[in-house]
Specification:
It comes from Oncorhynchus kisutch. Keywords: GTPase activation, Repeat. One of its GO terms (biological process) is system process. This is TBC1 domain family member 9. One of its GO terms (molecular function) is calcium ion binding. By secondary structure, this protein is α+β, with helices and mostly antiparallel strands. Helix content is 47%, strand content 13%. It contains 43 helices and 28 strands. It has an eight-stranded antiparallel beta sheet. A seven-stranded antiparallel beta sheet has the order 9-8-7-6-12-11-10. Helix 17 packs across helix 18, helix 22 crosses helix 23 and helix 29 packs across helix 30. The C terminus is likely disordered.
Length: 1202
């Protein structure tokens, strides 16, 4: 390709000149091509890889040089000799003569550079090449990545890093390529090449390791191997990106959430490193936004716009606190450099004024922000104050217009149905006078000093007040504030109300489970002993199930929601539930409680670190896994007295999940001696249960509520009372060093383990379910399941051409066998690799795959699951001769392609094969098919069956013998069909004569006249057709260099068996209940003459791609007594007929087909030939099919050549 001219100082170093003229030089890189150029070539190739030279992508180039200059300009480079030769010839033909006219060298240089740039501009214009943010260097890396690993354009490269890969004890220096779906490595050292490709979805462990030999290394583990990479220039950046990409893959496995690039990123700045891609900047921006949202508990769709260092004036201690200001679309946030000193959240919906204050030496570049509740915040020491103020003003303007629009829409909605909504805005359910304690003096002082509402200053003192207990009547308000739910509620007015209205009266699995659990939600509390509380709980849970169908409803949500309703209004409780399920406890309440299992693993890690003396004992007893789920899912609400558990919920909303971990560790630590003495898990659970039952809240003003969990414990001596506030304070003192970012790191590690464990469990369950239904071994089934799943995943990565969306077909909530399903396009890829009957010819392979797919698709939804896939493959690999031939027969009774419609009584009828599917499904359930129940094979279907047989034998070792045998069987079956037709015809005529004697008389002569053509057909079927069928395969003609055999059926001409006016036409008029033609009109043109009426002809593809059987007669539409005319038979010497017909009465049965095949030993041996399943699976794992087929299994084997 042409490139923008760049200077090259040394034209000959590491390059070989192949052509030259006075102005241009064509060069090839040393070491490229055959021979590798000896030792020098090996060294150059090694340098190119290690130094990431562009010559790896383009080993050919063209240089421009004026005769008297030492400076060269590169104007073109190419990946192949053909490409670069085309450029060279264009230069010789179009530029050489023109350049000789110039006298000044500078003019020549200017002209050549301008001409090349003009060519590039014209090419970009004609090919609609759009500018992107990726640099030229990174585009070279993308080309290298695709060339080395055979990746399609859909596979997006994120970044690449220089590193060493350890193969045994030998490091291989090369490049690590990180794409959205794969981690790849390439190395070339002195002729030895190493390649490695691993799917992110196959990684089970990803960790940084540090040893004396490898101080900075990354270990990537899969189910089958461990891979170690070291010598990174920036290991932290590399590892963070690897974590992020692995998380994306796990998210796709968990809930089928694919990756979509953010196209709204700002343009690339000049100072940005050259290697950074737009995709890498997108992922970096996502990571920053995730940390920002987690830090300030903001909605999931909030994107960070930027951050800057500044100081904040804090009136409560009269200081300027150093920290960072964060600005996003809807919020301005601040956090101090010292983590717990001060933080602040200012929603832009609350802002009234943003203005620049006067600068001074004491207060440089200040900005003042005023809010609706009359609070003013003063930021100073802002580096780019003007830009920042302008940015905030732009966001503020967008927020104002958005609020105005929402008020207009909600105002129109709220103007009606007031009675329906009246119950939605009830006060919290807990209305007992004893339940209300007014804020104490400490609370009033805090509000005065630190403010109230969402814009309050959050300091260490705020945390202390929370640990002392939130007043009952402030609990709901502060839960909303600390969780961030208040922001989502404020920005979605009317949302909950609409959800309630939409979900009322709707029933599904989630609503059934909700109804079952409603009366189990805090049944001991008075608020849920009446219909009002139950109805409120029902509305909140049902509304959330409709908001998030991926979660729907999970046990334990009812307990948490009922507590939320005690302290918050219905809408507030709903948004608190949203914050819990989607942000604070991610993935806790999905169908497989993945989040809780992840945190269970984190808790085990923390227990090993903080209570090591107890860890081994707890693991032996298996207690940790039991207690953690019940404690975490309900936030201790189900295991602790209610008035004490709400204090835990207070702390959780303020500090997050670290509070739960601290408290759980403290409970274990407090009972360490009793647990060490426990003999079994039952005794250990009793110890912990009695301890938690004894936790009390003496400051609570709530009425005494009997605790359900305490009723289930033993009758032993009660445990001494434990004050909840002392317990919480003690947990902070002993385990307060646990950091939120450390927990996130642990969560990532455990998430890999948990999701891969779930995937392995799914695989084992699927295999266990079908292992008794097939002759495959368990190991073979597991390997096939991996290939089946990977075919689905690859289509998710790169898309398919079948028109269906693969990501919509994977539903982790479905039963195991239904979780992964493939469509026809994906089945074709597996069919060509695994199925023994797959022809070498691609066109015929696709048609056969279509027939096979439709046979396996029992429910007709155009998708097949793993059981259906294995049922078909099992017959081909382990079935006996009869089963295989029966499958082959069935595949051709079902229409392969719908091409024929018959116009009858004004309606269009399309082939319907569901009738046969229903028949065959009944047979499959009984494990035995009655051969006599199989439908007969008509003439067009028989032709297709013969085509399939001829194509199946291509390139077989016994090819000639198989062709001879097929020709014999074909001739025999033709004769059987003709004989059967005579009996069928005479029987039908007798019945017709009995029904209508008069009509039989008038039709008699016509029947006599029809005898001759029928006799002609019989003679040809028994004579010429038989001879040709046996003779033609003996000397098969090769076409298109592929060795394709001319079909033995090529010369068979199917004639009318009787004239049209007999009233029993031989053309095959197909109704809804009859078998139908299964060939396609899309891939060939039809030769036809005469009438085009749909009910008078049937298009049928012949054995060869260029021969078509078409029935056509010159007669008026609807006429029954027209002359035979040109539709009569054609003699053999008459050339190819313009039209032939399909005989309606001709048919064969499966018994005839089976008996005919059994007469030929070559065919019997072919179908009884054992299939090497293991070899096919291994081959399928190693084949890399670019586009929309599968890669290898977990990871490719490293190939070392040289």
């Amino acid at each position: 390709m042409w490139v923008h001219p760049e200077e090259v100082l040394q034209a000959s170093a590491l390059w070989i000149t192949e052509r030259a003229n006075p102005y241009f030089i064509l060069q090839k890189r040393k070491g490229h091509g055959d021979g590798r150029g000896g030792l020098a070539g090996l060294l150059v190739g090694t340098l190119d890889v290690v130094l990431d030279s562009s010559a790896r992508v383009a080993p050919y180039r063209i240089l421009y040089q004026t005769p008297d200059s030492l400076i060269y300009w590169i104007i073109a480079h190419g990946c192949s000799r053909k490409e670069i030769t085309e450029h060279w010839e264009w230069l010789e033909q179009n530029l050489l003569q023109t350049l000789s006219i110039f006298e000044n060298e500078n003019d020549i240089t200017t002209f050549v550079k301008g001409k090349v740039q003009g060519i590039i501009a014209e090419y970009n214009k004609n090919h609609d090449v759009k500018e992107d943010d990726d640099t030229d260097k990174f585009k070279e890396a993308i080309c290298t990545f695709r060339k080395l690993f055979g990746m399609p354009e859909e596979e997006k490269l994120v970044n690449y890093y220089s590193c060493s890969y350890w193969k045994g004890h030998v490091p291989r220096q090369g490049w690590l390529y990180l794409s959205i779906n794969h981690i790849c490595f390439y190395s070339y050292l002195l002729g030895k090449e190493a390649k490695l490709v691993i799917r992110w979805a196959d990684i089970t462990q990803l960790e940084k390791s540090a040893t004396l030999l490898l101080p900075d290394a990354v270990k990537v583990s899969t189910r089958v191997a461990e891979h170690v990479f070291s010598v990174f220039l920036n290991i932290n950046e590399t590892f963070k990106l690897m974590e992020q990409l692995a998380n994306i893959a796990m998210r796709q496995l968990l809930d089928n959430e694919g990756f979509e690039q953010d196209r709204s990123l700002p343009k690339l700045k000049r100072k940005t490193p050259k290697k950074v891609s737009a995709l890498k900047r997108d992922l970096d921006a996502r990571a920053k936004s995730e940390r920002y949202r987690a830090l300030f508990r903001l909605p999931k769709d909030e994107k960070l716009d930027g951050h800057t260092g500044c100081t904040l004036w804090t009136p409560f201690n009269k200081m300027h606190i150093l920290g960072q200001m964060f600005v996003s679309t809807n919020y301005i946030c601040f956090t101090s450099k010292e983590e717990t000193l001060c933080s602040l959240i200012i929603p832009l919906r609350e802002v009234t004024i943003v203005e620049k204050a006067d600068s001074s030496n004491f207060l440089p570049s200040p900005v003042s922000i005023s809010t609706k509740n009359r609070m003013t915040f003063l930021f100073a020491n802002l580096k780019d104050r003007d830009f920042l103020v302008q940015r905030i003003s732009d966001f503020l303007q967008q927020t104002t217009s958005k609020i105005y629009f929402e008020r207009e829409t909600t105002g129109s909605v709220n103007s009606s149905d007031d009675e329906v909504r009246a119950h939605l805005w009830l006060s919290p359910l807990q209305q007992s006078p004893r339940a209300h304690r007014h804020p104490g003096p400490h609370d009033h002082n805090h509000i005065t000093e630190y403010g109230q509402g969402v814009c309050m200053y959050r300091t260490e003192k705020t945390k202390d007040l929370v640990l002392k207990g939130i007043p009952e009547n402030m609990r709901g308000e502060l839960w909303l504030l600390f969780s961030g739910a208040i922001n989502e509620m404020a920005t979605h007015p009317g949302y909950y109300e609409d959800l309630v209205e939409k979900s009322m009266g709707k029933y599904n699995l989630a609503t059934e489970e909700i109804e079952r659990d409603l009366h189990r939600s805090l049944p001991e509390h008075p608020a849920f002993q009446n219909e009002m509380g139950i109805a409120a709980l029902r509305r909140v849970l049902t509304a959330y199930a409709f908001r998030n169908p991926n979660i729907g409803y999970c046990q334990a949500m009812n307990i948490v929601t009922s507590v939320l309703l005690l302290y918050a209004k219905e809408e507030e409780a709903f948004w608190l539930l949203v914050a819990l399920c989607e942000r604070m406890l991610p993935d806790y309440y999905n169908t497989r409680v993945v989040g809780a299992l992840v945190d269970q693993g984190v808790f085990e890690e923390l227990a090993r670190e903080y209570v090591p003396e107890l860890y081994d004992c707890m693991q032996d007893l298996g207690v940790i896994s039991t207690i953690s789920l019940s404690w975490f899912l309900t936030l201790f609400l189900s295991v602790m007295p209610f008035e004490s558990a709400v204090v835990v919920v207070d702390c959780f909303f303020y500090e997050g999940i670290k509070v739960i971990f601290q408290l759980a560790l403290n409970v274990l630590h407090a009972n360490i001696h009793q647990l060490l003495g426990a003999k079994d898990d039952g005794e250990a659970m009793t110890v912990l249960g009695r301890y938690l039952d004894s936790v009390t809240n003496k400051d609570s003003t709530l009425p005494p509520i009997p605790h359900l969990h305490s009723l289930l414990t033993d009758d032993g001596d009660p445990h001494p009372e434990v004050d909840i506030f002392k317990l919480v304070r003690s947990s902070y003192e002993k385990f307060g060093s646990i950091r939120a970012d450390v927990i996130e790191q642990m969560r990532f590690k455990q998430r890999l383990r948990v999701i891969q464990t779930i995937e392995d469990t799914t695989k084992r369950n699927v295999v266990r379910t079908i292992v008794t239904e097939t002759a495959f071994s368990i190991d073979e089934l597991e390997e096939l399941y991996v290939l089946f799943k990977e075919e689905h995943l690859t289509s998710c990565y790169w898309g398919g051409t079948g028109g269906s969306n693969p990501t919509e077909r994977h539903d982790p909530s479905l039963p195991y066998l239904e979780q992964y399903r493939i469509d026809l396009e994906q089945f074709r890829g597996l069919f060509s690799l695994l199925f023994p009957w797959a022809p070498v010819n691609g066109a015929h392979a696709d048609l056969l795959a279509l027939r096979f797919f439709r046979l396996l698709d029992h429910n007709g939804d155009s998708l097949i699951n793993f059981r259906e896939f294995i049922s078909g493959l099992s017959v081909l690999c382990h079935g006996d001769l009869t089963e295989k031939l029966k499958l082959l027969y069935k595949m051709h009774v079902i229409p392969g392609k719908c091409v024929c419609t018959v116009h009858r009584k004004g309606k269009l009828h399309t082939p319907d094969y569901r009738h046969y599917l229903r028949l065959w499904n009944q047979g499959t359930k009984n494990k035995l098919d009655n051969m006599k129940d199989l439908p007969k094979l008509n003439q067009s279907q028989f032709i297709e069956l013969c085509k399939t047989l001829y194509n199946m034998f291509s390139e077989d070792a016994q090819e000639q013998e198989l062709y001879h045998a097929t020709a014999t069987v074909t001739s025999l079956l033709l004769e059987m069909g003709e004989v059967g037709k005579l009996f069928c015809h005479s029987k039908d005529q007798e019945e017709q004569d009995q029904d209508d004697p008069e009509e039989a008389k008038t039709s008699g002569p016509a029947q006599d006249g029809g005898t001759k053509p029928e006799g002609v057909f019989q003679q040809r079927g028994q004579g010429e057709g038989k001879e040709e069928s046996q003779a033609r395969p003996c000397g098969p003609a090769k076409r298109d260099g592929r060795g394709e055999q001319l079909s033995a059926m090529e010369e068979i001409r199917l004639e009318d068996s009787s004239p049209k006016d007999t009233g029993t036409s031989s053309s095959m008029l197909i109704s809804d209940d009859e078998t139908k033609d299964d060939t396609s009109m899309s891939s060939y043109s039809v030769l036809s003459g005469g009438s085009h009426e749909l009910d008078d002809k049937l298009h049928c593809e012949d054995i060869n791609d260029d021969t078509v059987l078409v029935r056509s007669e010159n007669r008026p539409h609807g006429g029954g007594n027209g002359p035979h005319g040109e539709g009569g038979p054609h003699g053999r010497d008459g050339g190819l007929p313009h039209s032939t017909s399909i005989d309606k009465d001709w048919a064969i049965t499966f018994e005839q087909f089976l008996a005919s095949v059994l007469t030929e030993q070559a065919l019997v041996l072919y179908f009884e030939k054992p299939v090497e399943v293991a070899a096919r699976i291994t081959n399928a794992k190693n084949v890399r099919k670019v586009g929309c087929s599968l890669l290898s299994a977990s990871d490719y084997e490293i190939s070392l050549s040289g």
